[in-house]
Every structure is written in structure tokens, then in C-alpha cells.
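In practice, a research group might receive sequence data for several interacting partners and want a quick structural hypothesis before committing to experiments. The following worked case mirrors that situation: the sequences arrive first, and a predicted assembly follows.
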Amino acid sequence: MQQILDLYSNLGNTTWQMIVMWIIGGILIYLGIARKMEPSLLVPMGFGAILVNLPLSGAVTQVIDNVTETGPLNVLFDAGIANEVFLLLLFIGIGAMIDFTPLLSCPQMMLFGAAAQFGIFFTLSLATLFGFNLQDAASVGIIGAADGPTSIFVADYFQSRYVGAIVVAAYSYMALVPIIQPPVIRMVTTKKERCIHMKYNPRNVSKTAKIMFPICITIVAGLIAPRSVALVGFLMFGNLIRECGVLDSLSNTAQTSLANLITLMLGLTVASQMRADDFLNLQTLFILMLGLVAFIFDTIGGVLFAKILNLFLKEKLNPMIGACGISAFPMSARVITQMGLKEDPTNVLIMQATGVNVSGQIASVIAGGLILGLVPRL
Amino acid sequence: MIANFMDSLRVMGLGMLGIFSVAVVLILIMIILTKLFPAEHNDSN
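A structural hypothesis for the assembly, expressed as C-alpha cells:
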């Protein structure tokens, strides 16, 4: 009888905080499966949140009777995330998925990508008022990059304790772009502005230009923001194997198998940072709130920049395309295209929106690199 | 907290300035690339 009771003795180690984390894990799994919100990340993360919050879980490192038992998730975290290798490999896959043609054919769209990073820096400042130190504030602000891997990369670089909450916020809000952006855009634009038609006169782009583009961007990023060169370089390497035309097999592998494998590892491994002791605190609530602020001010930054340009331009821009400067691709471009069609069924903004959205992917990585360079200097 | 906030304002100013300056450089590169290597009729667009 005693042996049977001993079998269940671990039940007594369960705390209410662990149960709250099981519920949070369940919610993430529900959002991923039932609501299809970034399921490839939220489902593994939700499951991982339950896995690491079981009493004396062998999945994470535990100290039992003064003996340290290393958990496999911590081994994976140290091997792949702490040294940023998983994220950089994922960037090869992402680079291989991106077609920069809409941006190369309308290069000026790059300015919107820059403007829409405003939310990152605004949130960084706001986070310091909530008591975060500059490194943690930078890690929170980068949620506004709307780019999960960049968020993890920066948070990890600054060794932020809040990496779990930051990743949950980054991926949740990315999935919520269709809900977050439209009301914000309506708030800062008039119906007349939303109905503006834009001419689309793209330059033709040669294959050589597409091949040279990733090489040139890597050199420039390396010279201007050397800390971002790993991020930009791996992204651009992925794009080079896509565009060169002789590495289709590698490109397909990077886009599918490599990206899937890393995503699978990433979700579970990041969950190792979601232990109740680290996750259930006031800072997590602040981070979730500040993440939303970052997305809102990214959108406002992009839209207002387009409105400012309109003061000087003869041919007016539809300010809604400024909102696509966030990195959430292609969701943001799709949202703006649908909003344009809703306001005026003859107003097709898809190419302009896609160009801006692609520029946001480069700009978010560069913003991450700039933060890595600027914050340690202060 | 105030010192951190003041530092963060510096990061905001320098960061936005930095990102716009990089964006301008990237635009110039894209324009130069498309001029140097113009699309021919049989090139993919």
C-alpha cells in the first residue's frame, strides 16, 4: 500500500502556480488549434509550458537532493537558442521564402518599412517607465519588430529573463494583426484617405539584380550595423539560394524541412523559459500590454509617415500602406489590401502593400541590429 | 528609472535616425542595381 502511495507522492509537489501554467499552456494550444493562430509555434509552446511545469519535471534541469539533473529542454536551449544558432538557421529558411521583387521594383517603399519600426523604440522608452532596465526594455520593445526570430535573438542577446513572455507576446500579436491593425488605421485616417488610388508603375527587375541584392545588402549591413550582420547575412543567404537558380533543392529544403525542424525545436525549447517561477509575475502582464502598444505604434508610425509624405507629394499615397511596414508577412499586406477593397472595391493595393511589407522584413532585422549596437553603448 | 528613460530616448532618436539612413542607402543600392542590371525581354519580372 505504501509503495502505491509513494507512486503518487509527486502530486504533493504540485503548486497552484503550476496549475495556472497548465491553463496558460492549454490556452496556447487552443489558440493554435481552434483559432489557427501561429499553430506551428503556439502548439509546441503550449505543450512545452505544461511539460516544464510538472512537479520535478525531468524535461528541464532540476536540483533534487543537491544533485543537478540536466533536462533535455535546457540542453536544447543552451545548444540552439542561447548561442542563437536555431534562430540564424531559421533565418535562412525565411530568406528563402521571401521574394524581394515587389520591393526592388519600387525601392522607395523601403522608407515605410523604416517608419513602421517606430513602435519598437516607443515601446522601449515606455518599458523603462515600467521599471525595466534598458536591456530588458530593448528586449520588450523588439516585440514591435513583428518578427518572432528577431525578438528571440535580441532578448537572448541581452540575456533577458523574460524571453518566454516576449516570445508569447510576439507570436500572439503577429497572429492578431488582422484584429489589431484595422481599428488603429481607421483611427488615424479619414475615409477619403483610405480610398486614395495609387498608380503602380514597377521597374522590371532582372535576375542579376535579384542575385546581387542579397550580397549588397549583407555587405552594407555588415559595414553599418556589424552586430546585425549575422541576422541579415543568414536572411540574405537564404534569399541568395532562392534567387540564384542553381540551388533549387537547397532552397526548397531551407523553406520547408529546415524551417519546420527549427520551428518545432524552437517552440518546445522556448517553453523551457516558461516555468511558473519566471513567468507568473507582474512583468509578464506588462510585457503582454507593452507588446500590444508596440504593434499599435508601429501601425501609427507607418500611417503617419505616409500622411506626412502626402503633404509634399502631388500624387497622393494611400496612407494605409504605411501600416504594412511591420514584418508580419504576408498578413499585414493582406489586411491592407482587404481594407482598401472594402472602402472602394476598385482600389487594389496588393502590389504596393506587398512591397512595403517585404521592406518591413528587412527593416525589422536592421532595427534589431541597431538596438544590439546602440543599447550596450549607453 | 529616469536615467534609463533618458537613455531610452537617445536610443529612440539614434535608432530612428539610423534606420532611415540605412533605408536611404538600401534604396540607392536597389536603384543602382536595377540600373546596372536592367531587365531584358526574356528576364523574369
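Before designing any experiment, note the following. Residues 9 and 15 of chain B are 9 Å apart (CA to CA). The two ends of chain B are 52 Å apart (CA to CA).
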